[in-house]
Write a structure and sequence with these properties.
Number of domains: 1
CATH architecture: 3-Layer(aba) Sandwich
Structural class: alpha+beta
Strand order of the largest sheet: 3-4-5-9-8-7-6
CATH class: Alpha Beta
Number of helices: 3
Number of strands: 10
Helix content: 10-25%
Order of helices and strands: HEEEEEHEEEEHE
Shape: globular
Length: 170
């Protein structure tokens, strides 16, 4: 019975692809497609050592019943990031993400160019869950576009479609 369900699930994903919907993020000044209307949460966090604030906007959208989730985070820094320090900032972000939980491990991480920005592709694994995506910096904003899913579910096509749907809009 379990085999039939897995076959049905696989065929459902392949034969009935997700109906991605375009979404505009005002704080991010960007367009991206989600599998359904995303949940949005905004938060302002103090940066005590800089006597400033950082604004976070998080967008979440479920993909399936297996708790697979598309996520976009837009973090607005108080000032623009020095382009010479972008790669170090991206590495620090990834290290901060995995450093908070010893069960997380980096499976893959590599720098690339994305929409004329320095970007870091990554895959992080924690207890049979994968967190895959791309993080990049544009001016004073850090963008994270990722999918979290069970490690036994293939999400490469969805991840590629999700990331490639992103565009800057003024």
């Amino acid at each position: 019975m379990k085999k039939l369900f897995i076959i049905f699930l696989f065929l459902s994903i392949k034969l009935f692809p997700l109906d991605w919907q375009e979404f505009y993020s005002i704080p991010g000044k960007c367009l991206i497609s989600f599998p359904n209307k995303p949940y949005h949460r905004a938060q302002i966090l103090p940066i005590y050592e800089a006597n400033a604030y950082m604004q976070y906007d998080v967008y979440l959208s479920e993909i399936d019943e297996e708790n697979s989730v598309c996520m976009m985070v837009v973090a607005k820094y108080p000032t623009a990031i020095d382009p010479k320090k972008e790669e170090v900032s991206l590495e620090s972000f990834l290290n901060g993400m995995i450093g908070k939980n010893k069960n997380r491990k980096v499976i893959e991480a590599n720098f690339c160019d994305f929409k004329n920005c320095n970007a870091l592709n990554f895959t992080v694994e924690k207890e049979n869950r994968n967190f895959q995506g791309k993080v990049f910096i544009f001016n004073d904003k850090l963008y994270l576009i990722a999918i979290e899913h069970n490690s036994d579910i293939e999400m490469e096509d969805n991840l590629e479609e999700y990331i490639n749907s992103f565009s800057f809009e003024e």
